[in-house]
Amino acid sequence: MAVGVSDILQSAFLTQHPVKMLIKGQWVESASGKTFETFDPSSGRVLATVAEGGQEDIDRAVRAARKAFESGGWSRLTPSQRGRLLWKLADLIEQNADELALLESLDNGKPIRYARSIDIPQAADHFRYFAGWVTKLEGNTIPVSVPNMFTYTLREPLGVVGQIIPWNFPLQMAAWKLAPALACGNTVVLKPAEQTPLTALRLGELICEAGFPRGVVNIVPGFGDTAGATLAAHPDVDKIAFTGSTEVGKKILQASVGNLKKVTLELGGKSPNIIFPDADMKLAIRGAMNAIFFNQGQVCTAGSRLFVHTSIYDQVISELSKAASNMKIGAGADPATELGPLISPEQLERVKHYIELGRSEGAVPVTGGQRPEREQLPGYFIQPTVFDKVHDQMTIAREEIFGPVVVALPFDTIEEVTTRANRSMYGLAAGVWTTDVKKAHEVSAALKAGVVWINTYNVFDAAAPMGGYKQSGYGREMGHAVLDAYTQLKTVWVNLW
Ligand code: NAI
Ligand code: MG
After folding, report:
1. Where along the chain do its domains lie?
2. I need a surface site. Which of 19, 73, 252, 476 has the fewest CB within 10 A?
3. Cα dist. 362→387, 391, 401, 403 in Å?
4. Three-state DSSP class for 207?
5. HSE-up (13 A, CA, CB side) for residue 484
6. What is the pLDDT of residue 222?
7. Does residue 415 carry a catalytic annotation?
8. What's the gap in Å between 167 CA and the centre of ligand 2?
């Protein structure tokens, strides 16, 4: 049965006043009684009023997570039982996929076609992938050279994990964080972004429905400088996993010093996407579009620096601009929409500011650069924008814009383009378009980035690690690489003398 916008708006979940937070298996209001509103960015209308977590709520949630970890239901379950719960949660996400997709699209603005085909299925898949790991977290036996010793390692959970996530892929980010943390036996306090708390809280209902013991997952919506900062500095939290801006990532690291909690950070990027003259042009142009316009460019891995070989530069820029100007802009919930609104008035201002800065530094938008007609599209929309006449030193070529704005940069040689591509404080992702296998590998080896896509872009899978070089972050998410980030090794020495 298809779910419509009015079903969502009138649902029992959205019409609660306020939508509550999940602490110790109970749905509660905030201790302060405070609430905040979450908006539909395509119109600015209020979608729901949400309980606003503060210091006391974070404290309670951390205590609940501690209890569940030390003595509660989570530690008493067998790995097989824990794996089954994660699998069940994946099934429930799938069963509620239409509703979750529309809720995500309304709260975030993203086109429903992508929410339904990418965000929700990938969230489910993430829980399934990590459900499989629960029963496979093995240690080793160590051939030590000390006589008569039997020595082995155990891979143990860290304890209570705080997870702070952004608004660009709200449910997917919750899944990327929760699935490996839980698979490794930790308990969690999750703080969704203040712009998009809804799908994480709806996921909380599914977590309860799946039968997770109380206190294993606590979800506390609220703002960064209150709920987020309290969680980041909390003395009884063993680890923080954060995705968001590099600026806040540095604050998270500073806040960790008190109890030396472990930290993993997935931060910003200014990823190069390089098109060589021997590329399959149709594929490359479609790929360049997806690299920068997917999710309105609000993607940490966005291919925002498009390096194009001089010999094909004019052709690529003209075809890319034409395709960009033909994109169907509209509300996320409209199935025809290809490009939705930005998340918030603040993000719109930030992106507009960069566009103005680009113009004032001498760059020229070949297409876009404006808000679309306000009468038709009153939300936080901005046209897909392609900048020409850009130099590497310009602000728009160096800083993360986090909007549908790409800078095009011509290049001549492999060495030149890899040097220029690497001249960034970031190193999250990169794209390479060529039909020459040798060149593809040569360039990928030279790029300082945590992920390199060859003849594709923005592809993710629960089994494939992702994370940043340089100031794009610490640690990896996904694949078995992430297991290191949610476990610690214990070495046990047994004297068999
Ligand atoms: P942000 O980094 O402020 O927000 C991300 C999360 O961190 C949210 O849950 C927020 O409540 C929380 N937070 C904020 N301040 C905090 C603090 N002091 N302590 C603990 N938690 C805190 O990002 P924002 O302001 O929403 O966006 C600003 C820019 O950040 C964007 O324009 C973009 O460049 C970048 N960004 C990057 C993302 C990524 O996926 N790497 C995601 C979101 C934003
Ligand atoms: Mg919202």
Report:
1. 5-267+473-491, 272-461
2. 73
3. 10, 9, 17, 20
4. helix
5. 9
6. 98
7. no
8. 8
DSSP state of 178: H
Q: List Cα–Cα distances, 248 to 42, 108, 268, 350, 353, in angstroms.
A: 27, 21, 10, 16, 20
The answer to whether 320 touches 289, Cβ cutoff 8 Å, is yes
Residue the block writes with tokens 């999710």? 295
458/298 Cα distance (integer angstroms): 12
CATH 3.30.470.20 corresponds to the domain 5-267+473-491: no
CB neighbours of residue 278 within 10 Å: 13
The active-site residue, picked from 52, 104, 194, 266, is 266
How far is CA 41 from each of CA 74, 108, 145, 249, 330, rounded to the nearest angstrom? 38, 7, 63, 25, 11
pLDDT at 415: 98
- Which one, of 80, 70, 262, lies nearest residue 183 by Cα? 80
As its CATH architecture, domain 272-461 has: 3-Layer(aba) Sandwich (3.40)
| Beta strands 149-157 and 141-142, pairing class | antiparallel
Q: Find the 249 Cα to ligand 1 centroid distance in Å.
A: 8
What is the pTM assigned to this prediction? Answer: 0.98
Report the pLDDT value the prediction gives residue 72, as an integer from 0 to 100: 75
Q: Which of 430, 465, 100 is nearest to 288 (CA)?
A: 430
10 Å CB burial of residue 283 (0-12, 13-18, 19+) is middle
Does the annotation count 300 as an active-site position? yes
Block mean pLDDT (10 aa), the chain, length 497: 89 96 98 98 97 98 97 88 98 98 98 98 98 98 98 97 98 98 98 98 98 98 98 98 97 98 98 98 98 98 98 98 98 97 98 98 98 91 98 98 98 98 98 98 98 98 98 96 97 97
Cβ of 253 below 6 Å from ligand 1: no
